[in-house]
Specification:
Distance between the termini of chain A: 32 Å
Strand order of the largest sheet of chain A: 6-5-4-7-11
Number of strands of chain A: 16
Number of helices of chain A: 12
Oligomer: homodimer
Order of helices and strands of chain A: HEHHEEEEEHEEEEEHEEEHHHHEHHEH
Largest interface: A-B, 72 and 72 residues
Largest sheet of chain A: 5 strands, mixed
Shape of chain A: globular
Structural class of chain A: alpha/beta
Helix content of chain A: 25-40%
């Protein structure tokens, strides 16, 4: 129990119970009133009143299912309201951004992929794209009226983010360093949350993907850079400055190759895309898609490509050993290029992990592919945008941008 | 918010508020009614009623302070009740165990150090010592009546612990492997919690030591073995099997020295006591106190000892770099021999950390000595024993062992 929070008051109960019901419908989809009654352990009439509140607030809508063959009155089904509050999620990548309007329940209401003006883009160019894309998504939804805009905007960036102000410390793929990115979005009238891609990806996979039901799960993503998003005890682990999970710059071998961060032998230099490309003699600056070509070659049985993937897989197992010893997760989800490495050379990864992890935690950890595919970070951005709304359905953020 | 917990009910408010008041007095010591009113944001009469409940339950007692020079009626002071519920904490070390009866507020009511029958002892020998020591502590307190025994017993073990059953997976200093330790204590009539020493030490330092006020703190302890206790987001991070923090077996250099765990180049082989002793030519099995002799030599300026400590300090900085990149803690507390390494060669540790950690988190982390000294794990064992009592002051565990 956190003991430094305020005392509870009678009014908190309704607020709390509304939030619990809404969070369960958001995560699990439509539920019958009977299911809600059983899950929450409250009376049917209390559940009825709470559902009526959420309906009036525009979050949910009720429907009566077809009676079917069973006798008795069927329980009403309470589901997300398609016309209810929504958020806008943005995933910033090197060559393009993906944006989506997402409703309660995680439903994508509209989505578009927009190429950047330049590759990589500057923070100002990305901010301009975001303003334009938010406006066009609102128009597409027929919700350009200011009173029914998005409740919040969540943005995923492939770099370290200071979550207090949205500043990007270091985003190697974008070439950003100490970029005051969040400040460029201050003119947006609703709350804007900027997060690290791995942090957001693990949130979405935990909520509705491969990490469902796991209280301790790590999402390890590797492309040019390598980073981890961590859920521990069922909650995001972000650290004091919001920069936990930057394991790409753990020094694996002090006499290893130089890393762009200035150190030598960082994990990225062993399992990042450049390491793979060096191994097949295609080193230099990683082009978009270059690593995918190597994976395609390896899948078609090309010996040099396969052997390169197996070398990376060996180092990946060592990195997983450190994660397992330190965090003892139930599941590790591998994203980006590391998903391909696991897919092609799972045997090598698992044997290396066995050699590098302590007995017990090494035996119980499961290695998984992301079930939300390329959308993990995008849907995670929607989750952080929704968080304030879901935590307090009676708050003033809903439908009423500040 | 954890959404899978039961809904809140009106009765939960009193229970919650009693727990919050009790937890604050347990952590912070005596508080005036006025302070409690301000902290909890409740009315004076509500605070009065809650304090009366806690007084009736035997947890706290009120006193009226000397009026002093200020006008008006002084606010009553609410403090831990010295004759109230207590727990027994045990810290199992290689040559001896330390046991203490601890009351609300973390006050040590009685304490003793008992040498083991053998060194190292077997699990059965330790269990017998614990039975005898608990009985003698109860007798010393004049509380041998079954209805006023300890509310619970917490035990710290220097090894990996399965917290579901108290089994010890691996405790290298004790020479235990897969030891069904917790099962030997089933005859004790009150709840028994067995925990890993670093996990318990970080709990105590977070509650009332060097980690106070930090939501993200790591306690890194090194003697023969090396392990970490982690507080993240203000809560203990234990992992899926309760074995998080076993970083002593992270492979630092795959071609490094063999480790007793069967791997090569584990962190322990670089910063554990044996590494230090090897460096001064006193390798072999570490005797109790052998590392302390090297630290004494280094402090008196002996060149070889000082140089050995600085070599360990360099590796310690690299290990801290991995901790900082992965967990981004606000503070890292160094315990056991690592406290001496920090004390003697802080400059080397910090320079090495700077080279091995990412910019931002590396700049903000603070390296501290434990303020509870050798008692961190013992007092942490008291905290876990108290946890069930504090979480539910109305529960039946208090004063009424099952």
């Amino acid at each position: 129990m956190r003991i430094d929070r305020p005392a509870a008051r009678p009014d908190d109960i309704r607020r709390h119970n509304l939030a619990v019901i809404l969070a369960q419908i958001h995560r699990d989809g439509p539920l019958t009133r009977a299911e809600l009654t059983a899950r929450l352990g409250l009376s049917r009439s209390t559940i009825g009143a709470l559902v009526a509140d959420l309906t009036a607030l525009g979050f949910v809508e009720e429907s009566v299912p077809n009676g079917g063959e069973r006798a008795g009155r069927p329980s009403h089904v309470v589901g997300p309201h398609a016309g209810g509050p929504f958020v806008i999620a943005v995933d910033v990548d090197v060559s393009h951004l993906t944006a989506a309007a997402v409703g309660v329940g995680g439903t994508t209401l509209a989505k578009r992929v927009v190429p950047h003006e330049a590759c990589p883009p500057t923070p100002a160019q990305v901010a301009r794209q975001i303003f334009a894309t938010v406006a066009s998504l609102r128009a597409e939804l027929g919700r350009s009226d200011d009173t029914i805009g998005p409740a919040a905007i969540g943005i995923s960036v492939p770099g370290t983010v200071d979550r207090r102000n949205g500043a990007v410390g270091f985003a190697p793929n974008l070439g950003w360093r100490h970029a005051e990115f969040g400040g460029l979005l201050d003119d947006i009238a609703v709350p804007v949350v900027v997060g690290n891609d791995a942090d957001l990806a693990v949130l979405a996979e935990h909520q509705r993907g491969s990490g469902r039901g796991c209280d301790d799960v790590v999402y390890l993503i590797g492309r040019v850079g390598v980073g981890a998003g961590i859920i521990a005890n069922g909650s995001p682990l972000r650290g004091h400055d919001g920069q936990a999970g930057e394991i790409g710059h753990n020094v694996v071998d002090a006499s290893g190759p130089p890393c762009h961060c200035g150190k030598r032998g960082c994990l990225e230099t062993f399992i990042g895309d450049n390491a793979l490309l060096e191994l097949v003699g295609r080193g230099g600056l990683a082009r978009d898609g270059a690593a995918q070509e190597v994976f395609a070659d390896a899948r078609s049985g090309q010996e040099q490509a396969l052997s390169a993937v197996r070398v990376v897989a060996e180092s990946l197992g060592q990195a997983l050993g450190v994660i397992v010893n330190t965090l003892n997760p139930q599941r590790v989800i591998l994203g980006g290029s590391l998903a391909d490495v696991l897919d092609i050379a799972r045997d090598v990864v698992e044997q290396s992990l066995d050699r590098h992890a302590l007995d017990a935690p090494g035996r119980t950890v499961q290695l998984s592919l992301p079930s939300l595919g390329e959308d993990s970070a995008l849907l995670g951005a929607a989750e952080v945008a929704f968080a304030a709304v879901l935590d307090d359905p009676l708050g003033d953020r809903v439908l009423l941008p500040r």
